[in-house]
């Protein structure tokens, strides 16, 4: 079998999305595999963010898989990686991982990672071939949200002036850089705004930024219907970090209610022990448990002093 790896094309996005759902739905044993993930979506908006970071696997002119690479400055990850079930166990996934790691090497990305099934030695062995090492579990947590007080003025990126947005992006960069040098979430903020996937909420302490969360909500985003999903969120570490984290979660819940959604979903690596415990105390419960794999085998920003929400799927 002659497999070629190339960039995914726009006219292939629907087919790539179908393969993604079929592959994961089959792996999980769903009665209707293509219904995996409902009306939530990954492929289209990640491709639109940067088509040069979306890879396709092809055999005899037929699309059989894809992989998308995410660049957060000094950190990067890839996914979802999916291969049509008819082509499993034939080295296709390995070729798609290779394409992603080549990207990281070209960018000189200091830290890379991925989220995979905690219970799957097959996946662990595949990624270990490329230098990824098993670290802590990551919990994807969900909570039912009740009606809260209206979200405060000045906390939503979408409602800011252009000058306020510029200053907010600078403040977000300073915050993420304090967590891990070079970590850059500005593209996530801009993508959510440009593609109307959701909004970014900002937590202010007097005149300075204390925290932020990039959120998707609704069908056609990574959230899905009736759901608000935190793509990435963080507060400054140090004194009162736990309190700031609680306040950021308050904002995320308020945004969920403001958009007339009833579910809030966020991921947290369990190495961030206090952040994880505070979420459980607020009523969040695990829906998915995966494991983070790192390259190199270092903590990065998965550390006990970090109060951050993220999901590397």
TrEMBL record:
Keyword set includes Transferase: yes
SUPFAM superfamilies listed in its UniProt record: Acyl-CoA N-acyltransferases (Nat) (SSF55729)
Pfam families membership: Acetyltransf_7
InterPro entries in the cross-refs: Acyl_CoA_acyltransferase (IPR016181), GNAT_dom (IPR000182)
Sample GO molecular function, one term: acyltransferase activity, transferring groups other than amino-acyl groups
UniProt entry keywords in alphabetical sequence: Transferase
Domain (N-acetyltransferase): residue spans on this chain: 3-152
Protein name from the UniProt record: GNAT family N-acetyltransferase
Natural source organism: Nostoc edaphicum CCNP1411
């Amino acid at each position: 079998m002659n497999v070629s790896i190339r960039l995914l094309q726009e006219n292939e996005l629907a087919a790539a999305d179908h393969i993604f759902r079929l592959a994961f739905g089959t792996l999980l044993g769903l009665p209707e595999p293509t219904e995996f993930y409902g009306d939530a979506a990954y492929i289209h908006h990640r491709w639109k963010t940067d088509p040069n970071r979306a890879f396709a696997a092809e055999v005899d002119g037929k699309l059989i898989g894809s992989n998308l690479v995410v660049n957060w400055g000094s950190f990067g990850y890839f996914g979802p990686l999916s291969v049509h079930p008819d082509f499993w166990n034939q080295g296709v996934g390995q070729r798609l991982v290779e394409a992603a790691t080549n990207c990281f090497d070209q960018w000189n990305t200091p830290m890379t990672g991925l989220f995979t099934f905690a219970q799957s030695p097959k996946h662990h062995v595949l990624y270990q071939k490329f230098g990824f090492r098993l670290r802590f579990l990551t919990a994807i947590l969900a909570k039912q949200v009740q009606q809260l007080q209206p979200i405060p003025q000045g906390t939503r990126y979408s409602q800011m002036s252009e000058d306020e947005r510029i200053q907010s992006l600078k403040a977000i960069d300073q915050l993420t850089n304090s967590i891990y040098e070079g970590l850059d979430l500005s593209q996530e903020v801009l993508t959510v705004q440009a593609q109307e996937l959701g909004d970014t909420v900002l937590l202010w302490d007097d005149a300075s930024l204390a925290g932020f969360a990039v959120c998707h909500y609704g069908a056609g985003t990574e959230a899905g219907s009736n759901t608000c999903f935190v793509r990435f969120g963080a507060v400054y570490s140090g004194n009162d970090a736990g309190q700031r984290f609680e306040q950021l979660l308050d904002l995320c819940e308020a945004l969920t209610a403001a958009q007339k959604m009833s579910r809030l979903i966020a991921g947290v690596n369990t190495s961030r022990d206090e952040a994880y415990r505070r979420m459980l105390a607020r009523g969040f419960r695990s829906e998915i448990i995966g494991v983070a794999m790192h390259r190199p085998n270092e903590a990065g920003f998965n550390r006990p002093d970090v109060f951050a929400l993220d999901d590397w799927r």
